[in-house]
Design a protein that fits this description.
32 strands, Beta-Lactamase, six-stranded antiparallel β-sheet, elongated
Length: 962
């Protein structure tokens, strides 16, 4: 061959889509392979040089097992072998089953004749292995359109030429032909009586021919449409409340255990995912999604789960719409996402895990469209016969149904003329056959029925217009009437317009439904409802009153519990939770040392305690008995009531280290159920500190009174005993002295009794005042005379500071005198010897409206409203603690602080005689003085500090004449 022609040929072979190879006929080593053929080889031969390599080294083993005998046959015999459609499955995951046109011949020959070959070789996968064993591949179909020829005259061995091998990919044309053949086969089955089963079988057969699938199935949804007889009669399929089921309508090599499988259509089945997502599902490895339920394959009688699955949806045939969405399970090739109604799925299975090529998936998707059309047509074909039978039967039964309807049915034409009436309507109105064709007004006039007054449309001015309005609005009315035979009826009348395909009304149907019994029952029920409503209203009113009374009682009880001076605590016996606690109980528990917050809001603190453990709450208390010992919690009244069901009370007090000792009276009792079990425990806490203080004060009072009365009585008795002694002779002076001493002691007893009586009156608030105008200069002069003996004997000075022109004041003269005498006597006793005790009197101005003058009745801008009387001494003074107890009843502070009788400057017994209201150091003087001043509407004030003396002051109101 010339070099130019060789280069040109090399260029052509490098750009054609046909594989070309030249192989040495003797050694079967490759001399040449064009680029297209190299692209079909596996690595590394697709890019590495193959010239000089043996064919068996380059091609896959499953191909060499089939190709080598053929090459040796052509090299030996000189035959020309040509195969038109050789199936190859070596690239299943990339392209699926492919088809090739293969030619093997010598590069040059002379004198040939042709004869048909034995048939096309099947190369790759299971088919190649079976071919190597001399077996026919399972499921393989012979191809009738294969063109093959061979040369019958062999070349001599010494003249053998290289072998020329050409390979051409004819997959697309073969698939198109198989697709058309499949559509033709399934379409031809539609016209047969048993169309659907035959169509399904032919779909699987065509599927096997197109993609070589030996294990496949068709799933169809159960009851995809209503029964034709129901659809013809106007039946509409109800909404399904649960998931639907599916059936394996056709299958190949599915294990018998799965052939009658009816899975639920949900997210555990492929059909469920297809219905939800509307796209093809590819599962290369089913072990990656074990939750998906799949049918079992028949592996020589053994059920086996598929290793990989391709699921293609079958859509209801109509114009599709598409959308794009990701695939939730497995993988997908196409992105188009259809939203049509899904009829079922075509599922292709493989025993081992493997992928599915995009070309094969697209082919099955196109084929599924035709399969959906065939399935739908087959179903419709089967339904047409049913519909025809139903229509025929309904047409024959229409008249019978019309007459069998118990309600009265009247058909009117568009002008409201009677077109037909069933037997019930004619009997109701007493019509004969000649009523047909008459207007509704004439028909009712001819009727023997009687409508009750005011309940018929025929008494209206325009009855026809009213009838059309009711029909167009779909109204239903109810009325009472007497039929033609005199029977009373209550009828419910409905009006329905009948329209043609254009929407025009061509008839009206009026139905008279007998509701006599229903109306009677309804009227009876309405009467009962009215009576029952009235009864319920009375009961509701009574219940409302009871509720209001209960709420009032509850409010009163709540108010009572909140306002009780005692603390109330209610604890459940079951879980020891606090059910009720009032603010007084919270305050008492806080004063006992429990940290119940907030301290400044007792109501909030009480609300916070609701639901807490009452047993744990009260266990935190440390209380003491009257003997001073700590009381164990098991001896508390609360614990005894909770654990033993005993009602008890106990007097307990707090520790002295925490401040003033507080005394409480605990009273607890159990609340029992009707079966005597303890439901809850109520604890009442009452603070008795004041009563305990009063009790101690009374004890001190009686002790003091007994002590104070005992001394003068002993003196009186001693002097009287001396006078009555017969063995003693007393002079007149001695007898007079004894009698004077006894008289003084009696006077002292009378003074003490008066003090005790005054203290009692102050305590009871029964101190009676004899108010009168008092001229202060005169009262001060009288006061000095009464205290003259005390002043002269005390070695102290008395100074009165009083401005001129003081107004008269209002008060009880003797009681005010007793207050001033008590204050001054105390001042003289505590003032240092030689010091001065002062009495200051000064007017008080309040700066308010001008008052009326006490003297001349004229208005003045500086008239006093009161007068202040102030007693000042420079004695030892008092601390704040001493001042707090100074004015208390039965206070012995004055007695304890009183200077001794023999203290220098103290008045002698003779000097004290005649001072009738001298306090015998009972601790009642300041208490009584304070009560007297407060009875006058004023206040006894004290200013003192240790070492600074003391000042007592009070204000008396100015007398205003009438």
């Amino acid at each position: 061959m010339e070099q130019g022609r060789a280069a040109q040929l090399e260029y052509i072979l490098g750009h054609v889509s046909i594989g070309v190879a030249i192989v040495d006929a003797t050694s079967l080593r490759i001399r040449y392979a064009n680029p297209y053929l190299l692209s079909l080889l596996d690595e590394p031969w697709c890019y590495q040089g193959v010239v000089g390599r043996h064919v068996e080294e380059v091609v896959p083993p499953e191909v060499s097992q089939v190709a080598l005998p053929l090459l040796q046959q052509v090299a030996t015999t000189g035959e020309h072998l040509q195969y038109a459609e050789v199936p190859y499955e070596g690239v299943l995951e990339a392209r699926g089953r492919t088809y090739w046109r293969i030619s093997i011949e010598r590069s040059s020959s002379s004198g040939t004749s042709s004869a048909p070959s034995d048939g096309p070789p099947r190369i790759g996968g299971q088919a190649g292995a079976e071919r190597r064993r001399g077996e026919e591949p399972k499921g393989a179909r012979p191809y009738s359109d294969i063109d093959s020829s061979r040369d019958t005259v062999p070349f001599p061995a010494e003249e053998q030429q290289p072998l020329l091998i050409t390979i051409e990919d004819v997959t697309e044309s073969v698939r198109s032909r198989l697709h058309l053949n499949a559509i033709h086969n399934i379409s031809s089955a539609i016209a047969e009586a048993s169309a659907l089963p035959l169509v399904l079988d032919r779909i699987l057969q065509a599927l096997q021919e197109m993609v070589g699938s030996h294990r496949c199935a068709i799933f169809l949804l159960d009851s995809p449409m209503p029964d034709p007889e129901m659809r013809f009669s106007g039946y509409e399929e109800p909404q399904r409340s649960g998931p639907r089921t599916a059936t394996i309508a056709a299958h190949k090599n599915v294990h018998p255990s799965s052939q009658d499988w009816h899975p639920l259509v949900n997210d555990r089945t492929l059909l469920g995912h297809v219905i939800q997502d509307h796209h093809t599902l590819v599962i290369p490895d089913t072990t990656s999604i074990p939750t998906i339920i799949l049918p079992f394959l028949d592996d020589h009688g053994i059920p086996r789960r598929p290793g990989s699955v391709l699921c293609v949806p079958i859509f209801e045939p109509h114009t599709p719409t598409t959308r794009y969405a990701p695939l939730p399970v497995g993988g997908t090739v196409g992105k188009a996402h259809r939203t049509d109604t899904v009829l079922g799925t075509i599922e292709v299975y493989h025993r081992r895990a493997r992928g599915f090529p995009e070309e094969e998936i697209k082919l099955l998707e196109r084929f599924a469209q035709q399969a959906g059309l065939a399935i739908q047509n087959a179903r419709l074909f089967r339904s047409i016969d049913r519909w025809a039978r139903v229509a025929s039967r309904n047409a024959h039964q229409k008249e019978n149904v019309m007459q069998a309807i118990p309600d009265g049915v009247v058909i009117y034409d568009p002008r409201w003329r009677v077109a037909d009436a069933n037997h019930a309507a004619r009997k109701l109105f007493g019509w004969s056959d000649d009523v047909v064709g008459k207007s509704i007004i004439q028909a009712m006039e001819q009727s023997g029925a009687t409508f009750l007054p005011g309940e018929t449309v025929f008494r209206l001015p325009r009855p026809i217009e009213e009838l059309e309005r009711r029909a167009l609005q779909g109204l239903v009315n109810e009325f009472k009437m007497l039929s033609a035979d005199g029977q009373p009826y209550t009828l419910r009348c409905s009006y329905t317009p009948i329209r043609d395909d254009l929407g025009d009304i061509f008839a009206f149907i009026v139905i008279y439904h007998d509701v006599t019994s229903e109306a009677a029952a309804r009227e009876r029920i309405e009467a009962e409802v009215i009576a029952r409503t009235a009864e319920l209203a009375q009961r509701n009113e009574a219940l409302q009153q009871a509720k209001e009374a209960l709420e009032m009682a509850s409010a009163r009880l709540q108010l009572l519990v909140e306002r009780l001076p005692s603390g109330v605590l209610l604890v459940s016996a079951g879980d020891n939770d606090v059910m009720l606690i009032n603010r007084q109980a919270v305050q008492h528990l806080q004063s006992m040392g429990l940290p119940l917050e907030p301290y400044d809001n007792l109501d909030e603190a009480a609300q916070n305690l609701i639901g807490t453990n009452g047993d744990a709450l009260l266990r935190g208390l440390t209380l003491y008995s009257t003997s001073g010992s700590i009381v164990p919690f098991e001896e508390h009244p609360f614990y005894r009531a909770l654990s033993k069901g005993e009602a008890s009370e106990a007097e307990l007090h707090t520790a002295e280290s925490r401040g003033p000792v507080l005394h409480f009276l605990f009273n607890a009792a159990p609340l029992r159920a009707p079966d005597s079990t303890i439901m809850s425990v109520i604890l009442v806490i009452h603070e008795i500190t004041a009563s305990k203080t009063l009790e101690r004060a009374r004890e001190d009072f009686f002790t003091t009174m007994a002590h104070e009365l005992k001394t003068p009585l002993a003196n009186i008795r001693a002097h009287l005993s001396a006078l009555l002694a017969r063995d003693m002779q007393w002079s007149n002076d001695e007898q007079m002295h004894f009698l004077q001493t006894a008289d003084e002691q009696v006077e002292r007893l009378v003074g003490m009794v008066n003090y005790f009586l005054d203290a009692s009156r102050v305590e009871a608030g029964a101190l009676r005042l004899e108010l009168e105008p008092i001229l202060l200069p005169e009262m001060i002069e009288d006061l000095q005379e009464r205290l003259e003996a005390l002043i002269t004997s005390s070695n102290r000075k008395f100074e009165v500071t009083m401005p001129d022109g003081l107004p008269a004041v209002v008060g009880d003269y003797e009681l005010i005198m007793s207050v001033l005498s008590n204050l001054l006597s105390n001042a003289f006793r505590y003032a240092p010897e030689g010091d001065t005790v002062r009495l200051e009197v000064e007017p008080v101005f309040n700066g308010g409206p001008k008052g009326r003058s006490a003297h001349n009745g004229s208005d003045s801008g500086h008239n006093p409203t009161g007068v202040t009387l102030r007693v000042i001494d420079h004695g030892p003074g008092m601390s704040e603690e001493q001042q707090m107890v100074l004015f208390t009843r039965f206070s012995t502070f004055a007695a304890m602080r009183r200077p001794a009788v023999d203290r220098p400057g103290q008045p002698s017994l003779e000097k004290r005689r005649g001072f009738s209201r001298w306090s015998p150091a009972t601790g009642l003087g300041l208490y009584i003085s304070k009560g007297i001043i407060e009875a006058h509407g004023s206040k006894l004030q004290l200013q003192s500090s240790p070492g600074q003396g003391a000042t007592f002051a009070f204000i008396l109101p100015v007398f205003v004449g009438k």
